[in-house]
TrEMBL record, chain A:
<dbReference type="InterPro" id="IPR015855">
    <property type="entry name" value="ABC_transpr_MalK-like"/>
</dbReference>
<dbReference type="InterPro" id="IPR027417">
    <property type="entry name" value="P-loop_NTPase"/>
</dbReference>
<protein>
    <submittedName>
        <fullName>Sorbitol ABC transporter ATP-binding protein /mannitol ABC transporter ATP-binding protein</fullName>
    </submittedName>
</protein>
<keyword id="KW-0813">Transport</keyword>
<dbReference type="InterPro" id="IPR047641">
    <property type="entry name" value="ABC_transpr_MalK/UgpC-like"/>
</dbReference>
<dbReference type="GO" id="GO:0055052">
    <property type="term" value="C:ATP-binding cassette (ABC) transporter complex, substrate-binding subunit-containing"/>
</dbReference>
<dbReference type="GO" id="GO:1990060">
    <property type="term" value="C:maltose transport complex"/>
</dbReference>
<dbReference type="InterPro" id="IPR017871">
    <property type="entry name" value="ABC_transporter-like_CS"/>
</dbReference>
<dbReference type="Pfam" id="PF00005">
    <property type="entry name" value="ABC_tran"/>
</dbReference>
Automatic annotation (TrEMBL), chain B:
<dbReference type="InterPro" id="IPR035906">
    <property type="entry name" value="MetI-like_sf"/>
</dbReference>
<dbReference type="InterPro" id="IPR000515">
    <property type="entry name" value="MetI-like"/>
</dbReference>
<dbReference type="Pfam" id="PF00528">
    <property type="entry name" value="BPD_transp_1"/>
</dbReference>
<feature type="transmembrane region" description="Helical">
    <location>
        <begin position="258"/>
        <end position="281"/>
    </location>
</feature>
<keyword id="KW-0813">Transport</keyword>
<protein>
    <recommendedName>
        <fullName>Maltose/maltodextrin transport system permease protein MalG</fullName>
    </recommendedName>
</protein>
<feature type="transmembrane region" description="Helical">
    <location>
        <begin position="12"/>
        <end position="39"/>
    </location>
</feature>
<keyword id="KW-0997">Cell inner membrane</keyword>
<keyword id="KW-0762">Sugar transport</keyword>
Length: 376, 296
């Protein structure tokens, strides 16, 4: 168990800089998730922490000790790889025991340790098998077991669930969360799956192009995204963006004249904004309702997706170039080409300035499970 | 995989089989000829494929026994054939081991390490290997003559010199093994390194066991190459006791007297160790050793 501290971490591949000074303090026992689009540097960052890539600049501390120059095993980390990377010519037992054997432990010493980990992961009946005789989920457990058996100070996971099918992924996700509760070890987890990020993380680190965009709890990131990138990245379907200009500033927030002609009001603190400034309104699909209301957006239904638990409507509107996505109650009798009007409450909207930075929202983060978006 | 096929497919299958069988006979013919010559009385290169009378005189000589010919004359074996065979096997085994050691480690460097001139080195290796060894025979002779002045066991007429000369020809083997290493994901060794292995331990405990099939192939190729090699061995080895079977067999064929029958028996003997090694190695050359380690 250990805290991990990153101070100005940079990584160059030849002349190309992929990480631009990452500063991050990871607390002891915390579950941290790195998310971001492909090529944002999240895997490079993890590999730099692991010691599989050299750090070009900056300092990495694990448990208050500088580890830049230490090989992986001396950093007290262990890692679960995306492709599992099990040793195919060794049995499950040998796979689990490999690191302990390299550490010159005797068989009598490590056998109980391996068996105990195998029991925890429910793979104790598979110990004599070779990896090729295992299913995907079992291989994943062996890969995790190989990390646990080392009793590391920090666990690193590099997209560990991306090779599993959907139902197994949910199951393993729950088990990893359970594992974290039981071991209470610091875990750093890389994924591009925002559901994994939202469900597992104590804090999420959103990365883009080698820089941290925002660090915060899943709730913070969802309700108070720092900028347009984070707002668009978290949530599915992603947030709708409506370009416009500030028409009026009052005590209730800002009124925006959308480029499509409509006027909408948004409950945000104006800060130093002035009327006439170019801005962008952000509304999540789950906050759009099919009813007349304060902020109306009219358009034509372009596509309707019946998801069973909800209906996703894609509306071609004058307010935005992209179709607007709205998550509506299930089984709505809508069809292609219908004229619809969507509305949203001012306190649900986000506002971003021309650089993409978010205005501070006036409404507090809602208390847990008010069930607002599914109250219909 | 049994796919549903058109009826005309049967004709194609028959034609393909006929073609393959004809080709097989064509390739088998020289071998059968040699077997036939070795079993024929007297030393004649020509004659029917199936001899009228079978005589083991050549085999007796090759295996070191004397035999009495039709006129009652006792003929002693002219050459130490079994000793040559032992020389050949010894040289081939050591050569193959040295070649394997050098080519796997070089291939690892080319496949996994980053260093300047890597691409250039790979191409250069291949180009150098393309230069026919026969054309450098004089150079090879001169080099080993000189080496022999300082290190006698590597000089002319030593087995060490032949092994050293053969061990130089590893460029193609490096390419073969590197190609195989490239198919093994680097994550395997990274996992080993995270588990606490050094680079060498990752190579030894993880990469090599996974590459076993290709190592067998390279060992076999190097072994065969050394057994059948003639030009280099013929200029480096002189004394009768030191010859390899490939070089020694040539002694049966001197200007005035071509001992075809004895030559044929010796030639077949030289094929035996290759066959034997192949049978042994085959069980390791199975595919799919690396399956199951990564997703799939």
């Amino acid at each position: 168990m250990a805290a991990v501290s990153l101070k100005g971490i940079c990584k160059d591949f030849g002349t190309v800089r992929t990480l631009h000074g990452i500063d991050l303090e990871i607390r002891d026992g915390e579950f941290i998730v790195f998310v971001g689009p492909s090529g944002c540097g999240k895997s490079t960052l993890l590999r730099s922490i692991a010691g599989l890539e050299e750090i070009s600049e900056g300092e990495l501390q694990i448990d208050l000790q500088r580890v830049n120059e230490l090989p992986p095993v001396k950093r007290g980390i262990s890692m679960v790889f995306q492709s599992y990377a099990l040793y195919p010519h060794m049995s499950v037992f040998e796979n689990l025991a490999f690191g302990l054997r390299l550490a010159h432990k005797s068989k009598a010493e490590y056998t109980p340790q391996v068996e105990q980990v195998a029991r925890v992961l429910q793979i104790d009946h598979l110990l004599t098998r070779k990896p090729k005789e295992l299913s995907g989920g079992q291989r994943q457990r062996v890969a995790i077991g190989r990390a646990i058996v080392q009793r590391p100070k920090v666990f690193l996971f590099d997209e560990p669930l991306s090779n599993l099918d959907a139902s197994l992924r949910v199951q393993m996700r729950i088990e990893i969360a359970k594992l974290h509760r039981e071991l209470a070890t610091t875990m750093i987890y890389v994924t591009h799956d925002q559901v994994e990020a939202m469900t597992l993380a104590d804090r999420i680190v959103v990365l883009r192009a080698g820089r941290i965009e925002q660090v915060g709890s899943p709730t913070e990131l969802y309700h108070r995204p720092a900028n347009r990138f984070v707002a668009g990245f978290m949530g599915s379907p992603s947030m709708n963006f409506l370009p416009g200009r500030i028409a009026q500033i009052d005590e209730n927030g800002i009124v925006v004249a959308l480029s499509g002609g409509a006027r909408v009001s948004v409950q945000v603190a104006p800060g130093r904004a002035l009327p006439g400034d170019e801005v962008c309104v952000g509304v999540r699909p789950e906050h759009l309702h099919l009813a007349a209301g304060d902020n109306e957006l009219a358009g034509e239904a372009m596509a309707i997706e019946q998801l069973g638990d909800s209906t996703v409507l894609y509306l071609q509107s004058a307010a935005a170039a992209e179709p607007l996505a709205a998550r509506l109650p299930p089984l709505l009798p809508l069809s292609h080409g219908d004229a619809c009007t969507l509305s949203f409450a001012p306190h649900h909207a986000h506002l971003f300035d021309v650089t993409g930075k978010a205005f501070e929202r006036m409404s507090p983060i809602p208390a847990a499970t008010t069930g607002e978006s599914y109250s219909l | 995989m049994a796919m549903v096929q058109d009826k005309s497919h049967l004709g194609k299958i028959l034609a393909a089989h006929a073609g393959l069988i004809a080709f097989l006979l064509l390739t088998m013919f020289p071998f059968l000829m040699i077997v036939s010559i070795s079993l024929r009385p007297g030393n004649f290169a020509s004659g029917s494929l199936i001899p009228d009378t079978i005589s083991f005189e050549h085999w007796k000589l090759a295996l070191g026994f004397s035999y009495t010919d039709a006129s009652g004359r006792l003929i002693a074996p002219p050459f130490p054939v079994l000793h040559w065979l032992w020389n050949s096997v010894k040289i081939a085994l050591i050569t193959a081991s040295v070649v394997l050691l050098l080519s796997t480690t070089s291939a690892y460097a080319f496949a996994r390490l980053k260093f300047r001139g890597k691409e250039l080195g790979l191409s250069a290796l291949l180009l150098v290997q393309m230069f026919p060894a026969v054309l450098s025979l004089i150079a090879i002779y001169a080099i080993f003559d000189e080496i022999g002045n300082y290190v006698p066991w590597l000089g002319i007429d030593s087995h060490g010199s032949v092994i050293l000369a053969y061990a130089g020809g590893i460029a193609l083997h490096i390419w073969t093994i590197k190609g195989y290493f490239d198919t093994i994901p680097a994550e395997m060794e990274e996992a080993a390194i995270v588990d606490g292995a050094s680079h060498f331990q990752a190579f030894w405990h993880v990469l090599l066991p996974m590459a076993l099939p290709i190592l067998c192939v390279v060992f076999l190729l190097a072994f065969i190459g050394a057994i059948i090699e003639y030009p280099v061995a013929s200029i480096l080895l002189h004394q009768e006791q030191n010859l390899t079977l490939a070089v020694g067999s040539k002694l049966y064929l001197y200007e005035q007297n071509y001992l075809w029958g004895d030559f044929a028996a010796a030639a077949i003997l030289s094929g035996l160790p290759i066959t034997l090694l192949f049978v042994v190695a085959q069980r390791w050359m199975v595919n799919g050793l690396s399956s199951g380690g990564v997703k799939g």
